[in-house]
């Protein structure tokens, strides 16, 4: 035993709106045209006509440049650094700086390093010590936490390929190796890994 579908009748307003929509529809090639609407009923008192503005297709979202995901520093490079067979190209020491000052210094350092053709740099953040002697709202180890966050931001992605915590002889958890992209137009003109 199946129930029949209940269909409701369109109101005169809905019929008028459908008629307007159906007039503006053009059938696609190979498709049947839309069904003709039922003739409109003229109500005793006609409501005010609908003011329908012509609709434009929605704009596509702006294209965002696709940045490749961050890649870890290669295992061979990390081993060579630990064993002393390879050294970093340049070093910046941020510990002791305030956040704003450190962020500004890091940005300029990375731009200069890339312009100089450096491939691997060391960023010293400091490990952050105990909060002894500081105010209740004084936070320790802020740069250690913030520098990796900054390196992931879109404004540094054209510079940074990836980063890793430094080995103990370069500062361990208080320092970060940063792998840099080649500058566009340098060498073969590509933006490949070094």
UniProtKB/TrEMBL annotation:
SMART domains with a match to the protein in the record: SMR
Q: Where is the Smr domain?
A: 92-181
Quote the biased-composition stretches of kind Pro residues, using this chain's numbering: 55-69
What the entry lists under SUPFAM superfamilies is as follows: SMR domain-like
Q: Which residue ranges does the record annotate as region Disordered?
A: 1-69
Enumerate the PROSITE patterns for this protein.
SMR
Q: Where is the composition biased (Low complexity)?
A: 44-54
Q: What is this protein called?
A: DNA mismatch repair protein MutS
Native source organism of the sequence: Microvirga ossetica
